[in-house]
Amino acid sequence: MLAGDDTQSGGHGPGLAPANAGVKTACPYCGVGCGIVATPRPDGAVDIGGDAEHPANFGRLCSKGSALGETLDLDDRLLVPEIDGQRASWDAALARVAETFSATIAAHGPDSVALYVSGQLLTEDYYVANKLMKGFVGSANIDTNSRLCMASSVAGHVRAFGSDTVPGAYEDLETADLVVLVGSNLAWCHPVLFQRLAAAKAGRGTRIVTIDPRATASSEASDLHLAVAPDSDVALFAGLLDHLEREGCADRAYIEAHTRDAEPALAAARACGLAGAAAATGIDEHRLAAFYRLWAGTPRVVTVYSQGVNQSVVGTDKVSAIINCHLFTGRIGRAGAGPFSVTGQPNAMGGREVGGLANMLAAHMSLADPGHRDLVQRFWRSPVIADRPGLKAVDMFRAVADGRIKALWIMSTNPADSLPKADAAVAALANCPFVVVSDIVRTDTTRHAHVLLPAAGWGEKSGTVTNSERRISRQRAFLAPPGEARADWRIICDVAARMGFAEAFAFASEAEVFREHAALSAHGNDGSRDFDIGGLADLGDAAYADLAPVQWPRARTTAAPEGPIRLFADGGFFTADRRARFVATPLAPARAADPRFPLILNTGRIRDQWHTMTRTGKSPRLMGHLAEPLCEIHPADAAAHAIATASLVQLESPHGTMLARALVTERQRRGSVFAAMHWTDQFAAKGRVDALVDDAVDPVSGQPGLKGSAVRIQPFAAAWHGFAILRERPRRLGFAYWALAKAVGGWRLELADTAAADDFAALASDLFTGEEPGGDALLELLSYRDRRHGHHRFAAFRDGDLVGAIWIAPGPVAVSRAWAVERLAEQAPTGARRLRLLSGRAAADQPDPGALVCSCFSVGANQIAAAIAEGAASVEAVGAVVRAGTNCGSCRGEIGRILATQQLPAAAE
Ligand SMILES: Nc1nc2c(c(=O)[nH]1)N[C@H]1C(S)=C(S)[C@@H](COP(=O)(O)OP(=O)(O)OC[C@H]3O[C@@H](n4cnc5c(=O)[nH]c(N)nc54)[C@H](O)[C@@H]3O)O[C@H]1N2
Ligand SMILES: Nc1nc2c(c(=O)[nH]1)N[C@H]1C(S)=C(S)[C@@H](COP(=O)(O)OP(=O)(O)OC[C@H]3O[C@@H](n4cnc5c(=O)[nH]c(N)nc54)[C@H](O)[C@@H]3O)O[C@H]1N2
Ligand code: SF4
Ligand SMILES: [Mo]
């Protein structure tokens, strides 16, 4: 077992890992791209610390990064290749993939096969995957989960700049006077970058404005929150452009020297105006005008945007509406100013650089440009080159469903859970004649694989990733791959060789792949393309191994040791005439509402989980924050649908259903509900939100509108509810509702069923016996029953130790989860403690820590409240007493909220 802990228990403070100890690598989660120092210990555990020298994080890590050591165990890891569910040799598995792909292409043409890849692949993996499809198979049917993530930003950049360029850098968030977060919950999704911003705010009073339909941890830390109507961002920024023009904020010199087409964009903006923006956003004109004045009056302004912008059927127009305002004021490419698309995945940017999207070529070259196609084909010496766009993710799965695609290879993504209309995607996979999946664990997608390939995971593989500020960092291996797992790039090259392309894929190392990629970026470039890392094309193996984080562009010809930190302050766009384009963004007509599905389903992320939980789901600390699928709903909507807080609800759309726990809160907007994207069939009965989500896409980018599906909601009619703590993972979970989460020393389980159970004691012992056959014979079962009121409680012991406990009630179980879970760590409880356990109430000497707030130091809400009651009057003071909020800082907003509610009565006195 490689289960590890982080530096806290290893004795180092956060960010204080001693220099030159351990292996420097990069975090495998978000696009901030933090540097990590990983130090394997002799007992197999791995200490994780922030890399103090990495320019993305300077030593900081968030809760997810800090808990990486807890995700490295081998539970569920794929260790050997499988064909049709049977163990197979690598040779047989690779041959089966190559032969089936080749035969399908021979029989049905190159477009009958496809690769569906991921922004979590390393650049080297991604480069060879793209080369294989576009240059050797001769189809552009390679698309990526970045289609669900960044495609609208890419399209918006290309429309405006002629290239997919992020013009700014992280330090701009520290030098700006105003940072606007549009559709970005930066505090939870890019926590370390948010902490840099929060520090700047504390230091120099940076103003923060959040534009998000619901209140979030980010909006709580902002000076102004505009709770806009869903998808009204185009109107908001069109109104801003109109305001900027009226107030004389145009940078005429910049507009005239470096841009084109301002007039049509201004005409659309005038047509919208303040009144149009107020009508569309639902924000009153005074409040909106205050925001416009702030933006207009602050030259150093960065507009940060993310999925509330991209994941929309008008996503590309949202991006254009934002960029228009920056071009109009010349606030781009300057210190502290610019539009800033923050990327989600660790290598979203690298994937764009190699051309991993179906409508791009390689090295930011264009599939539509015959000159570019020729350049790439000659460079690759390839027999063919794709000459038209391939199928984008949503269309790709439609083509799988209707049989146009007959062989599909999925790498490093879990589309059975993350694609819109996910049930249809699953059905497509189930009917596809040939599905290959490369993953590190079993998932809802791997179930459908004819060939399953075990990939080497983070810490075992080596290569590069590019973060949101165009910075390339090394991921380095510090563990040997387990079992027979292999690096993705090698698997792809081995298949390519067996398809007859050995020469072009004869890479001996990831360094060789990187050199070719870097050389291609410089090939025939001469400043005509933004992405140029020719300066890295001659790195020797040792220099590649030691490569320090470096921002692109990094052309061979650059005299300076570093490329420019920002682009476009002096124009130099990558259109033919080197001018940027304004893009008119007329308002789209409002979508017709469907009275059968009156609510809008907004979806997104929570602080401590990563996507489909294949790694964060292994960490008890991370699972402790929010342990089951939740649905945020406004009190008025909850009342209208007879939904009580903490009850279970069923959500329904024309595409599917989902069960979740209701969180009734004014932070949610009326008419909308919010659910996290994370839960899968591995963790809950019906927790897959994408089963509900509609697959309508943005017409320009092909990105689906994952934040706006029509749904309806109703109470889930449960006959009984249960909560259990378990030493072992239960064998069977045949309940209408269940949600399972890892806890320290075992598992925690939420349960409910529509049918009355006639024997709860049997149900309990079945849960407690785990995988052990006949194990129940050894159990000592303690019970409490109140049949009249429907309360049943059981606790089971083996050799004096607690094996499990369950509390059953007719309604949601009112037992403190935090207190109960801690009982798993207790040594052989006897007498009163056992009875106390059944009562479900904390004793004075075992105080209930309350819901987990700080995952880094495992501090609960009650502990924080106690610190406040004893006099801690600020977030810092709370940190000084109980440590909460003093590591990654992602929970500081929640601590602030507890402070505010607790101080209210005091202030009123
Ligand atoms: N903890 C955690 N962090 C992550 C990830 C993770 O899984 N977990 N994933 C990473 C990835 S791949 C990505 S892409 C990023 C995503 O990072 P974010 O984009 O910050 O995250 P989301 O929660 O998807 O969505 C952001 C916000 O958009 C809002 N929104 C919805 N509709 C609209 C709208 O019409 N207009 C506006 N203005 N806002 C709207 C939502 O209410 C939500 O609060 O996070 C990255 N970081
Ligand atoms: N409703 C809704 N849906 C969404 C979103 C949303 O906001 N709302 N967000 C969308 C966005 S922005 C994104 S980025 C996607 C993310 O969705 P996915 O990409 O489907 O999510 P992950 O869980 O990150 O999947 C990564 C998979 O790769 C595996 N893996 C990890 N490391 C390796 C490796 O080194 N090699 C290989 N071969 N496999 C590996 C993991 O075990 C996991 O199964 O979801 C999208 N879907
Ligand atoms: S902010 Fe957190 S998840 Fe993102 S790269 Fe840094 S440590 Fe990893
Ligand atoms: Mo993403």
Observed structural traits:
seven-stranded mixed beta sheet; 34 strands; Barwin-like endoglucanases; binds molybdenum atom; 31 helices; Rossmann fold; 909 residues; binds ligand MGD; 18% strand; Dimethylsulfoxide Reductase, domain 2; alpha/beta; binds iron/sulfur cluster; disordered N terminus; six-stranded mixed β-barrel
Describe the structure.
With 909 residues, this protein is of the alpha/beta class. The protein has five domains: 82-148 and 349-508, Rossmann fold (3-Layer(aba) Sandwich), CATH 3.40.50.740; 151-341, Dimethylsulfoxide Reductase, domain 2; 599-715, Barwin-like endoglucanases; 720-839, no CATH class; 852-908, Arc Repressor Mutant, subunit A. Helices cover 32% and strands 18% of the residues. It contains 31 helices and 34 strands. A seven-stranded mixed sheet has the order 5-4-16-15-14-6-7, with helices on both faces. The protein is globular and about 80 Å long. The protein starts with 6 loop residues before the first helix and ends with a helix. The model is unreliable at 1-20 (pLDDT under 50). The structure holds ligand MGD (2 copies), iron/sulfur cluster and molybdenum atom. One ligand MGD is lined by residues 118-120, 145, 148-149, 307, 311, 344-345, 411-415, 418, 438-441, 443, 455, 457, 461, 488, 603-604, 611-612, 614, 677, 689-690, 693, 706. Keywords: 4Fe-4S, Iron, Iron-sulfur, Metal-binding, Molybdenum, Nitrate assimilation, Oxidoreductase. This is Nitrate reductase.
